[in-house]
Fold these 2 entries.
Entry 1:
Amino acid sequence: MNKGGIYHSLKERKSQGKRSFAVLVDPDKVNGKDMIRLVELAIEARVDYFLVGGSLVISTYLDDCVQLIKSNCTIPVILFPGSPSQVSKYADALLYLSLISGRNADLLIGQHVVSAPFVRQSGLEIISTGYMVIDGGAPTTVSYISNATPIPADKSEIAMCTAMAGEMLGMKIIYMDAGSGAKRPINEEMISRVSSVIDVPLVIGGGILDPEKAYLNCKAGADLIVVGNAIEKDLTLLKEMSSAIHSVPLVV
């Protein structure tokens, strides 16, 4: 991917009404053998992107994980960092997450100030991301680590205004996440209402356990669906999820 290529591809796919599918890989939960099998299935299923990262990442497998994916396929790899230390120069791009749904200044801008020289030096394509945590019905790692209250699942107007503010502040994408292991995924009404008030790509993740939910999220307005836990537990879901997402009728 050339510089600026990932964001350009996301915007282009959105303008064409195409939905995208990303598989989230937590380096703490995989090994080389698992990854090779996952990459093989991802190629077969026509996965659009790999997201690599996690809220903690306590292993030293990040670089190896990214390199293994890159050496076995041409699917772009985007870093989804839970901390400033989760940077690998071998990836294609990095989601520079600003937690706009919370009031923790450290995750809104503080950690970015500390990490900025290192991130700039990495040479990665940097995609500023308005990150919104939505209540998924259970405490998640991201809500605990961030020490921030998630947006209530039934408060679509708060999500709408937060997303609008993020876009007007210059965020290139809005990422709404119910969190890893969420009991309740983000509802379609909230996705639809947020999608209707922003022009940047909308990413949805957390608690998406079956192809039907992925399909409905796309119909509601999601441009990119991210699935991690469900695929970790059942690799056979990967192809079904991808088919469902890519079968959503084009809306331009």
Note: The longest helix spans residues 105-122.
Entry 2:
Amino acid sequence: MNVALTGSLVLVGAGKMGGAMLEGWLKSGVDPKKIVVLDPFVSDDMKALLSKHKVSLNPAVAGIGNAEVVSIAVKPQMMEEVLPTIIGLGAAKPLILSVAAGKTIASFERHFGKTAAIIRTIPNTPASIGRGITAMSANPNVSAKQLQLATELLSAIGEVVTVDREELIDCVTAVSGSGPAYVFYMTECLAAAAEKLGLPPALANQLARATVAGSGELMRASGIDAATLRQNVTSPKGTTHAALQILMAEDGLGPLFEKAVKAAAKRSKELAS
């Protein structure tokens, strides 16, 4: 990746998600001299990484006069405390790139103004290993060049997609944002079922984890759609077929997932501010 930055890339918050983005940028070749990190509570490991790459940490905000992108990765509950301290960065008319869950574009416009270029995103936790997927929605002030720049920066932690209406971010949150937890819980359930069949707990967990992880990698690497992969492993009247008769019943996994995803989307709308 060759991100063409003309100004500074300011990262506000270097916790789990912000830290994953930073590591992705550095690995992808972003010039560390153009990165500025603002976070008074960085971990010792993060301090070591910043020191190694000579990334600027917590300079005076007033001295950052050429901010091109301000990536905000602080916890939503800290947002109203943090944003007033960085308002001065808006003087350079940067792109405001938020990875904070539940914070709407309007909430950033209240701080940076109606003319500010703002992109709201929802990444997910596999971003920590560069295998996430991030959906983004932009306000009308974002230029095509800024949209491309945001895509390049977010590509450092995985795939990037765009939704044309901000309200769809709630739907994305319910699918990919919360989705890793659904997969982890499914893995727990598979392991628990294996134990009830008599397998030792450690073996049950190993089998479940490897099966879920391997199946996901097969789906990614092959590019084959999930339905075809399912059909490929299902022999007529065989063991998989017998299990799928339960999982694909009218009261099976499909309706349950629909109900769960709807609940997550509803809650995402309730939390948005």
Note: The CA atoms of residues 117 and 143 lie 8 Å apart.
